[in-house]
């Protein structure tokens, strides 16, 4: 059975045996190799993009552990990720770029990690500016579509 407390202490203290470091390096290389195949690459990239941020969103919805700032940070991440995925689908980039899912995993990490605040940078400098500028036109178009379908 894996002792998580002991494992956490080893990571914090950077106290690994050469065998453990070899196992970690081998696992990393295997995952990197598998990520070059579209199925596994997309799976890994989606896990990185969704699993941990979704769990953190679940925690932020609990008012005891997540405040307004944390919820705002997560909403910015989800909006940025959604727009990133729309452009990915429209451009058909995965079919054109070799090792695309490795790049996407790195981009997703950059978007999410609090140290880089990538989603906030993209949102404040691109998405927010474009949507603010076109908000009236977008609202009008949505209203026309809704009225047409009634």
UniProtKB/TrEMBL annotation:
It is found in: Membrane. Keywords: Membrane, Transmembrane, Transmembrane helix. One of its GO terms (cellular component) is membrane. InterPro entries: TB2_DP1_HVA22. It holds the Pfam family TB2_DP1_HVA22. The chain crosses the membrane at residues 21-54, 74-91. It is a multi-pass membrane protein. Belongs to the DP1 family. This is Protein YOP1.
């Amino acid at each position: 059975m894996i002792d998580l407390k002991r494992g956490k202490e080893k990571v914090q203290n950077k106290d690994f045996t050469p065998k453990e470091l070899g196992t970690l390096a081998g696992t990393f290389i295997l995952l990197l190799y598998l990520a070059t195949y579209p199925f596994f690459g997309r799976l890994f990239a989606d896990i990185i993009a969704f699993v941990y941020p979704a769990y953190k969103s679940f925690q932020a919805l609990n008012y005891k552990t997540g405040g307004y700032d944390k919820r705002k940070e997560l909403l910015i991440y989800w909006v940025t990720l959604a727009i990133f995925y729309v452009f990915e689908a429209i451009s058909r980039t995965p079919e054109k770029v070799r090792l695309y899912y490795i790049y996407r995993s790195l981009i997703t990490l950059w978007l999410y990690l609090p140290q880089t605040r990538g989603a906030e940078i993209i949102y404040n400098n691109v998405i927010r500016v474009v949507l603010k500028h076109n908000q009236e036109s977008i609202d009008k178009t949505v209203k026309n579509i809704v009225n047409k379908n009634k």
